[in-house]
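FW: tagging you since you asked about this chain on Friday. Here's the raw sequence from the shared folder, copied in full. Didn't touch anything.
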Amino acid sequence: MMLKKWLLAQVVVLIGAFLPTNLLAQDPCDDDDVVTGSISYNGPFCSGAAIFLTFTLTPEDDSDGIFDVVYSFGGQEFTLLDVSTGHVVSHVVNFSTTAVLLTILNDDANCINTINQSLVIDVLPAPGIIVSNTTQPACGQNNGGFTAQGTGGASPYQYSLDGVNFQSSGTFSNLGAGNYTVTVRDANGCTGQQGVALNSSSNLTLNLVESNGPECQKDNGNIRVSAQGGQPSYSFSIDGVNYQASALFGDLGPGSYVIYCLDAQGCLSTLEVTLEDPAEGLIAAQASVGSAEVCPETPFQLTGNLPAGTTGSWTATGGNVLFTAPGSPSSLVSIDLPGTYTLTWTLSTPDCTEYSSASLMVTVMAPPVAQSDGPVVVSGSGGGIPVLNNDAYAPGITLTLVQQPSQGIAAIDAENRILYTPNGNAVGFDTLVYQICQEDCDFLCDTAMVIFSNESEICDLNAAPENVFPEGITPNGDGYNEQL
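HL: got it, structure written out here
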């Protein structure tokens, strides 16, 4: 990239009143170019304050108004490319003194002239704080305090605990336990901070007298503590909410507990106690089964784990359940009656009986129930009936015909309907028998009958003249003692 005019005519620190320092330089390469520059600032600054530098740049021969500027601040060099007049930069002052050095490079007519202008900005040190006369508060009381004394900077000093409200005295009293931040402000407006911690002056302590871990799979552990110091009397808690006069806590399971103690002044002391779990580190029980749905009276496989040093046993809830090897992790089991059963594999060690159990659920399938249908009135062309609609069965069923009708033919369609087609001379009632079976347990079956009524059975005087009484309701013609 071709160098543009490296030029700074004026650097201004924009805070308060300005104190200008001017510099005039002649460019030896081109008598038409005159470079002027000034740096102004309103110091001194407090450490940590921000100053703003504004570059006022005057176009030269090319009159494009775009410049490249190089300057240093606090010993670090910065380059600004393609900036125009009025460009502003800011820097935080953290040094005892900060030097601003401006380097002006003019490349007009392929020659370079350097004009340096520097300014040293005095940075005021932040005041320090010395804390003395610290009084720790009593438990539950606001009677603590301390004294802060400013150092360095410029006196007189002002003091604050919230950074907003300042006072001429560095003494703070009527304070409770807690962490405080005191701020000192000197005559120049520079500030410094110091943290102060006030702790309860109580000497209340809590000691462990005894702790007994629970037995395996039982909540019979206990913890006993004692209190010293502070102001008697004492109250104790294991949850930080409910307190009691007794220092003994029982019926505890394994785990970590925090015991709390309050004295008469409201001072608090705590002690953490851990009750070990006898089953800690032991491998948990695991159990699996090939299928959650099984057939009655049909053995199926159960599998459990058996870690080293343990024994195991299978148990069941409900019904007649037979395990071929109840103490083995791999056992066959059969169940007679339909229903849902819980099968459990339990692990034990010599020191920890029944320390872990794993349960699984199995369902023993029930046989389907087929319900008879009909009479179903059909015409000469026949008809169909969804026989499964009133049957009871588990998902996965097969439908077959076990007896064909005597006056026609039956078939099963893709929707598990039975289609009946009567013979041309079919009259009266006709029957068939079907069977439904569970697919996974093909011996679980039931049968039912479907009755069809052919419409020709309906009384038709023209079709069946033998049903016509010649004398109306008096077939013998006497008109007496007739019964129909």
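FW: Residues 1-37, 106-113, 457-461 have pLDDT under 50 and may be disordered.
HL: agreed, and DSSP finds no helices and 38 strands in the chain.
FW: great, closing this out.
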